[in-house]
Specification:
The protein is mainly α and 270 residues long. Helices cover 45% and strands 3% of the residues. It folds into 2 domains: 90 residues, Orthogonal Bundle (Cytochrome Bc1 Complex, Chain D, domain 2), CATH 1.10.760.10; 106 residues, Cytochrome Bc1 Complex, Chain D, domain 2. The strands form 2 sheets. The chain has a two-stranded antiparallel sheet with strand order 1-2. A two-stranded antiparallel sheet has the order 3-4. It starts with a helix and ends with a helix.
Length: 270
């Protein structure tokens, strides 16, 4: 190749790369309104963003890959944990974390009720952005490896049996059950361990304290998924003013088949 040919090749290659880059840039920007559901960017969401910056949340947390890594990534926290948990946590973080166990806790920020409401709206908006799979693993309560969890990694179902499909769904995000529930005895995360949920459900159905509508173990588990307030499990971090902090929208977010699969899996945990 002569010097002139090399020069022409370099110019042509640079032009092709530039055109491709500009094309991808235009395509990306054209998709941003859809990926970020820009139509739901309300004044309250913007107010929540201001709260996020006012209290320097980004000094510890990460959103969409931006921020510090001292504390968990919160990109999908509103989807994984729900507004009831977030509200209770922001009111009093010390209820959920023991400094003797995790060695670091979120400081009490003394947010007002309106600031909490606005911040939740902001995190909910962030949580529904199509992030193309980010973050790579779900948030966990006190680290990347907790007994009874799969460290946030989703594994494919080993078979098409309902129990196997339910186990895969339990570890999937959404619904992200394993982000709040362990399946190891005595390991309580945001919610109680589900290690022996089938046994405890059978016992609860016989208890005078139970006032739900379930008649059997499968029904109790199904009721707990669809209506967490039908029976609130006692526990300092499980409820606020007798209302469960578990999201109550799984009956709408999950299909009937998915709920059947989760019930089959949880009913096998004895």
């Amino acid at each position: 190749m002569t010097r002139q040919q090399a020069r022409l090749f370099a110019i042509f290659s640079s032009a092709v790369v530039t055109i491709a880059f500009l094309g991808m840039t235009v395509d990306t920007h054209s998709q941003i309104p859809r990926l970020t559901h820009e139509d739901k960017l309300t004044p309250q969401v913007i107010a929540g963003k201001d709260v996020w910056h006012k209290y320097n949340c980004t000094n510890c947390h990460t959103l969409l890959g931006e921020g510090a890594y001292y504390a968990p990534d919160l990109t999908k926290i509103a989807v994984q944990r729900g507004p009831e948990y977030l509200r209770a946590f922001m009111h009093d973080p010390s209820r959920f974390y023991d400094e003797q166990k995790v060695r670091r806790v979120m400081p009490q920020q003394h947010l007002s009720e309106q600031e909490i409401t606005d911040l939740i709206a902001f995190l909910e908006w962030i949580g529904h952005i199509d992030t193309q799979g980010w973050p790579p693993r779900r948030i966990l309560v006190s680290g990347a490896a907790i007994p009874g969890t799969n460290a946030g990694q989703q594994a494919p179902a080993p078979s098409s049996e309902p129990v196997a499909l339910g186990q895969a769904l339990f570890n999937a995000a959404p619904p992200g059950c394993s982000a709040c529930h362990s399946i190891s005895p005595g390991v309580n995360l945001v919610g109680p361990t589900l290690a022996d949920i089938a046994t405890r459900a059978a016992q609860m159905l016989q208890s005078p304290d139970y006032h739900g509508k379930a008649k059997d173990v499968a029904g109790y588990i199904r009721e707990s998924i669809i209506d967490p307030n039908a029976y609130v499990v006692p526990g300092a971090t499980y409820s606020v003013e007798q209302r469960s902090i578990m999201p109550g929208n799984f009956g709408k977010e999950l299909t009937a088949q998915q709920i059947d699969q989760l019930v089959a899996y949880l009913a096998s945990l004895k």
